[in-house]
Please model this.
Amino acid sequence: MVGLGLFLSEKFDTPVMLRITTRVAHSQGFVEKGEPQPRELRPYTRNPEKYLMLPAFARGRRAFIEERLAGLREYSETAAVNRIEWRDRAVGVITSGISYQYVREALPDASVLKLGFTWPLPEKLVRSFSEGVKRLLVVEELEPFLEEQIKALGLEVSGKAHIPSRGELNPGIVAGKMIEAGILEQREATAAAAVPEGAPAVPARPPVMCPGCPHRGVFYVLRRLKLNVTGDIGCYTLGGLPPLEAMDCCICMGASIGTAHGAEKADPAWAGRSVAVIGDSTFLHSGLTGLLNVVYNKGSSTVLILDNSTTAMTGHQQHPGTGCTLMGEPAPAVDLEALVRALGVRRVRVVDPRDLAGVTAAVREELAVREPSVIICRQPCALLERQYAPAPRVLAEKCTGCRVCLGLGCPAIALKDNKAVVDTGVCTGCGLCIQVCKVGALTKGGADHA
Ligand code: SF4
Ligand code: SF4
Model:
């Protein structure tokens, strides 16, 4: 599909959007590699009528866009990714993407129009499919994107009357809704939704911060201080989930600082009881302007830059602060402290996020000051070096089963028979749990990382 997108982009001189659903985005499997197509670098041709969208040029460009759309509409009628699969004609389903797989499992005998190119819609193909079936359905996730376009053609079709517009679909949901729609019998639906014999039961695995994650201690402190926290996008957004629950909002990339600043402007007292948190990668990507505005507009926000020296959430990509290009070549590394000072922030300090007392003191001090401040919480991502300290030792006779250590949300520690147990296979020996246990039931010197 990416290759087709590139082909269409070149052929029609247009941006192409490849829209994938959650299930496809989170899937993995074998792929067949195509042969790279050699391309010659075309010489640059100056063309302000196309690339400089001033009103005078934009008006002229409109005619081109309409011609291009007409061409794309014609192409969609014959595109190989839009195909009719004729089977039983009592029911015909128009679908696209992952929903096609669910339809094939739930309604294996139904005729299907599978659309891989959904806009502009292949009107003639849709009409011809509609004429060939007795009852026309659309199965699609979330918004009725296809359904509304098909209804606009004047065709009788149903979709969201049966198919939910929330969450992901699966064969069981589609089959169940087909019973409600009077299309399937119960026994057929049960067969469609059946789990293959011998398939292992898969437990739910919601995302959590890794054992030894340097962000964990920061959110533990913020929660204990009962602060309002404007968040940003990265692994650390998980700090908003139980048991840490130390993030109030995450609007878009880089918005943590602007949100904190805006809230402070609406209510000056906000500054003394809130912080913005943003990762190093996110800060360098889109946090600078927000911080500059805090300084310029005489704000007093406290910003925590969670510097784990990588872009962890998306797979440890390099960024301008790591000293390496994405291709692994040495590059100049941004000095975060100097950069923040250059933006006009005078109060800049660096703390170790695994030192809970140190983080607590730094946050308290900066919140008490009425000027912008930045606390850089610096500790590499636990998955970068993978050189771990021994796990803590549990002194079972001291453990009261109070569950305070579980408040860290570390996957490596649990209670068994009302006593703490540490999984040495995943514990990184970060020592946070030792710091929070008030009765000294956790000490250094346990087993090495297994
Ligand atoms: S190890 Fe400490 S914090 Fe954890 S349950 Fe036992 S006493 Fe409580
Ligand atoms: S030392 Fe404690 S908090 Fe750190 S990874 Fe091990 S169990 Fe988790």
Observations:
- The pocket of iron/sulfur cluster (ligand 2) is lined by residues 211-212, 391-392, 408, 410, 412-413, 422, 427-433 (CB under 6 Å).
